[in-house]
TrEMBL record:
Residues 97-177 form the PLOD1-3-like GT domain. Keywords: Signal. The keyword Protein transport does not apply. This is PLOD1-3-like GT domain-containing protein. Residues 1-21 form the signal peptide. It comes from Saprolegnia parasitica (strain CBS 223.65).
Length: 207
């Protein structure tokens, strides 16, 4: 299965906060000049990662998805350190019982990678909306997801990562972790055929 940035399948839509119409006004991303076949969206999946079964804040998200005829897919439930097929990536997939935000972010990436590569109900033409679990509802018509996505990608496969109108907190946070992120140069490549370009951590929100 084709991957972008070595991790996420190209038919995937990734958004971390979801108000469908207003949040997805990201600037279209120019991809390689190689010809692509048109992308006809298949099934839409809405998934999240939530490993703490004691938090009921996931219920409004699940209800908002279910009210539109979809079922919320939950990865990592009940502090699971094993994927749905019984395999595990070891320590990076450990249960985040200490609620360490960095462990949680790492776990998301490993679970998403495994989901895209191995989930039996995911097909090459499907569209995946990944969202946070505790502070989100799907506030819009999910039937418009495909058209919004294709508008942003000019009818092609692609990835929209963090569809919020503002930059994520990590590169702006005022602590040693944020300082470390801002001090680095980060490689950016959305397709394997693209040349890698680099962005300073200070410019990451505008890259």
């Amino acid at each position: 299965m084709a991957t972008a940035m070595g991790l996420l399948t190209l038919e995937t839509l990734l958004v971390q906060r979801v108000t469908l119409a207003s949040r997805l006004e990201a600037r279209p991303i120019a991809t390689s000049s190689a010809p692509h076949s048109p992308f006809n969206v298949g099934k839409v999946h809405v998934i999240t990662l939530a490993d703490d079964p004691t938090r009921t804040a996931i219920c409004p998200l699940a209800a908002s998805v279910y009210s539109q005829g979809l079922v919320l897919g939950v990865l990592g439930w009940n502090y699971s350190d094993h994927f749905f097929d019984g395999t595990s990536c070891g320590p990076p997939c450990q249960a985040n019982r200490g609620k360490d935000i960095r462990i949680g972010q790492q776990k998301k990436l490993h679970w998403l990678h495994h989901y895209f590569e191995h989930h039996p109900n995911l097909h090459d033409d499907d569209l995946v909306l990944f969202t946070d679990a505790w502070d989100v509802i799907v506030n819009g018509d999910t039937a418009t997801l495909a058209s919004i996505f294709l508008k942003q990608t000019r009818g092609q496969r692609g990835v929209i990562f963090n569809g919020e109108p503002s930059c994520g907190d990590s590169f702006g946070i005022a602590n040693p972790y944020g300082d470390k992120l801002r001090s680095k140069r980060w490689p950016i490549r959305l397709e394997r055929s693209q040349n890698v370009r680099y962005a300073s951590g200070h410019d990451m929100c505008y890259a």
